[in-house]
Hints:
Elements: H1 7-18, E1 21-26, H2 46-52, E2 56-66, H3 77-82, E3 85-88, H4 98-108, E4 112-118, H5 140-148, E5 154-161, H6 172-186
Parallel strand pairs: 1-2, 1-4, 2-3, 4-5
Helix pairs in contact: 1-2, 5-6
Amino acid sequence: GGDHTITYPILQAVAEKHGPxxxxxxxxxxxxxxRALGEKINHGTPFRRCVEEGLLDCGxxxxxxxxxxxxxxxxxxxxxxQGFRVVPAEExxxxxxxxxxxxxxxxxxxxxxxxxxxxxxxxxxxxxxxGTPEIAGLTPAQALEIIRGCKGxxxxxxxxxxxxxxxxxxxxxxxxxANLLFEMLCVLPRVKTM
Length: 194
């Protein structure tokens, strides 16, 4: 729930217990801006604040599905400079993400990992109920591949953010968000599924 600002204080608490964590971040945007709307704490800035505070193990951060317009000619430079792996949406088009998730599992190892899923990582054809939709995003099947691909990781927390039901008269965005959260619960450590 909420906008992506909520991940920042959650990661402060998680890092207090576990130290810097790996991050599987699904989003249309990197959310690493220095300022947004003149503010340092905004839904477009949480992961820069997390880097500055040492909350992330930057060599174990993967951002999947990023795309859209930018004010910068190289919008992923900051992320890559920190050591993040950035997987733009166009690298995901028309294919299974199971091979990517095998690589991600190796990268994350057995150290603590947090999953942060912005619903705008999905194409607005599936999830229009969000404040910052971007065309040409991931499919629901790819979202399931990402989440299910996290099974076996040392997941210490997760979130799903930016669902705005009032922007979707069909209710599909809320339905998709609820199902993705259920899937996240199913991949938590020690959860038994059939």
